[in-house]
């Protein structure tokens, strides 16, 4: 049985007030028992979020990390530092970082390794653009991204990776993949994993991301290969995020 994970990616949004609102809301929330929940605020709010969520079963995540553990990298944050703040998950390869900050598959792999090295669970984000989907390249693109990051890993490392399938055309657009579109790609990712190790493929957690909302979460999460959600916009509204958590039964 795979435990579902709902992870809220605040991107470059949020405030101390939002951190406090989450702390209060989750203190009162009766979440489903077999559910993992994580909040990924921007770096400056990590410590406040750690304190606000200390007594509730919500884990802390970060949105990126530098591939190095320390050194002359002005403005960057390492996995080792995130670990000190109690971070349990970190995104690697988010499409915004691939597009806006030109992160290549090689760099995504280096960040993934850095996270595994310090014992933080990476959430590897993969997904095709609209042009790639329209050209019929969805499966090639997604499996290339997955393969580039996972093929060189040791089995023990691969077992600690979560994959988020996020069609780029669905991120922040209000346009969601249909449950069938998402399921087809995620089944292909799991099938690809089976080539390495069928047991590992069955155990691997796969998240869907792309305009997931309180209205569409239940039907997405009901798909057999969708084990949770990476939620952007809707994770900034406490009630919506809680509703999505409750859909993951
Ligand atoms: C994301 O940022 O990973 C994301 C899925 O955003 P949104 O839910 O806003 O589409």
Automatic annotation (TrEMBL):
Pfam families named in the record: TIM
Gene Ontology MF annotations? triose-phosphate isomerase activity
Role this protein plays: Involved in the gluconeogenesis. Catalyzes stereospecifically the conversion of dihydroxyacetone phosphate (DHAP) to D-glyceraldehyde-3-phosphate (G3P).
Gene encoding it? tpiA
Family, as annotated: Belongs to the triosephosphate isomerase family.
**Which NCBIfam families would you find in this protein's record?**
tim (TIGR00419)
Annotated metabolic or biological route of this protein: Carbohydrate metabolism; erythritol degradation; Carbohydrate biosynthesis; gluconeogenesis; Carbohydrate degradation; glycolysis; D-glyceraldehyde 3-phosphate from glycerone phosphate: step 1/1
Q: Which domain of life is it from?
A: Bacteria
Q: Which GO BP terms, alphabetically?
A: gluconeogenesis; glyceraldehyde-3-phosphate biosynthetic process; glycerol catabolic process; glycolytic process
Protein name, entry field: Triosephosphate isomerase
Active site, renumbered: 94, 166
